[in-house]
């Protein structure tokens, strides 16, 4: 087994782009992460140097796994064996956690060497389910109002909602919400749902990469929930992704939220796999 670790995203893409594109659902987060770094620089997610890696079962074999870590965020796995934990430990990497398909993330957490010694505990931070759009169905009943693409006039509202969304999901890492919204507006994938002439919900569709687009974030203020706005704006964002050429439209839901899991299935999304994020504590 041959491991290659690097701080250079271009070096990873030179070796692993074909593998990433061949498995767009498995690698959806890695594809969008690398796209954002390519557009905004290697420190798009923070000041720390990112670490990327791929492995081959044999030195001259094809790439068979890819991962990325953009400090201060957890290691993000695509298809990857648990032996990655030993490779990162031997490199002296600081690993705050791991995220990915459940079996791969659990294997990494069990293999993380300090955890094996009892010095680190792996605590579940997020349980998610990845969905794929099988065929878009409109919301029923149709909510009051209409969807439209977000524009510069929506910026301040979207900055506020971006902060509220991350606070609600418990994200503690610092985020420049203004820069985030500016970047997403420039990409053209943000949509708002309006009712009575005012925005009441929003959703994003990532740029199409390797035939894949992922929906998110999705946010409706608490006082406006239960009116179908999220269904309407997610349907609009999904239609945007399809029109932009996406062969696969994906989204994640929090398994602790039965409402979102239900409404997305009614729009035509079907489960692909369960994913988990572990925070490593102690040590």
Q: Care to describe what's here?
A:
- There is one protein chain.
- Helix content is 35%, strand content 31%.
- The protein contains nine helices and twelve strands.
- The chain has helices spanning 9-22, 28-40, 84-91, 102-111, 113-116, 155-169, 177-187, 229-243, 258-266, and strands at residues 2-6, 51-56, 63-69, 75-77, 97-101, 120-133, 146-149, 190-195, 198-205, 212-219, 248-254, 269-282.
- It has a twelve-stranded mixed β-sheet with strand order 1-2-3-4-5-12-6-11-10-9-8-7, sandwiched between helices.
- The longest helix has 15 residues, at 155-169.
- It starts with a strand and ends with a strand.
- The model has no long low-confidence stretch (mean pLDDT 92).
Summarize the structure.
The protein is an alpha+beta fold. It has nine helices and twelve strands. The model has no long low-confidence stretch (mean pLDDT 92).
């Amino acid at each position: 087994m041959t491991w290659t670790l690097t701080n250079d995203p271009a070096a990873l893409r030179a070796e692993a782009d074909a593998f990433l594109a061949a498995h767009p659902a498995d690698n959806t987060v890695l594809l969008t992460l690398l796209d954002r770094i390519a557009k905004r620089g290697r420190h798009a997610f923070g000041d720390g140097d990112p670490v990327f890696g791929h492995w081959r079962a044999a030195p001259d074999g094809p790439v068979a796994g890819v991962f990325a870590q953009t400090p201060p965020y957890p290691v993000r796995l695509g298809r990857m064996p648990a032996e990655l934990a030993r490779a990162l430990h031997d490199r002296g990497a600081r690993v705050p956690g791991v995220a990915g398909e459940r079996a791969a993330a659990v294997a990494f957490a069990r293999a993380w060497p300090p955890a094996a010694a009892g010095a680190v505990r792996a605590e579940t931070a997020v349980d998610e389910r990845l969905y794929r759009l099988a065929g878009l169905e409109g919301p029923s009943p149709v909510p009051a109002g209409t969807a439209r693409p977000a524009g510069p006039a929506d910026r301040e509202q979207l900055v506020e909602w971006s902060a509220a969304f991350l606070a609600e999901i418990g994200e503690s890492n610092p985020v420049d919400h203004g820069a985030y919204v500016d970047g997403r507006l420039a990409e053209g994938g943000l949509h708002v749902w309006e009712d009575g002439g005012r925005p009441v919900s929003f959703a994003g569709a990532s740029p199409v990469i390797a035939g894949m687009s992922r929906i998110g974030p999705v946010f409706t203020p608490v006082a406006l929930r239960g009116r179908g706005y999220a269904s309407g704006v997610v349907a609009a964002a999904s239609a945007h992704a399809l029109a932009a050429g996406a062969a696969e439209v994906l989204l994640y839901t929090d398994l602790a939220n039965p409402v979102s899991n239900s409404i997305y299935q009614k729009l035509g999304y079907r489960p692909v796999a369960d994913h988990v994020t572990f925070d490593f504590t102690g040590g």
